[in-house]
Amino acid sequence: DVQLQASGGGLVQAGGSLRLSCAASGFTFDDYAIAWFRQAPGKEREGVSCIMSRDGSTIYADPAKGRFTISTDNARITVYLQMDRLKPEDTAVYYCAVDPSPRRLSSLHLNPNDYEDEYWGKGTQVTVSS
Fold first, then answer.
1. Which of 18, 29, 94, 117 is least surrounded by CB atoms within 10 angstroms?
2. What φ, ψ does residue 88 adopt, rounded to 5°?
């Protein structure tokens, strides 16, 4: 079974940094994408960033551009989200999800509806105080 576990959340002051980790296991996919999403209270889940296993290419949602960096380890089984210059509006539960379909990286990878329910991990809470 595919398992994804997000960790690294916490409480941080505005302007601070956090690094989230998404540990993946149970993969038999040769070509996949792992994405980060977040959901703030009362809001819909939204895409943050995505990275492709094939070539390490990445995509970011506008709120993440210039502040967040997605990366993966050499074995490509842990995906990180380095979040710098955090803002109170970044407060949310952050989730990671995997897309095993070998499609070209696009903004669709930041659409949570494009990910099967079974390919989501449990989230980690990020709280940014002002």
1. 117
2. -55, -30
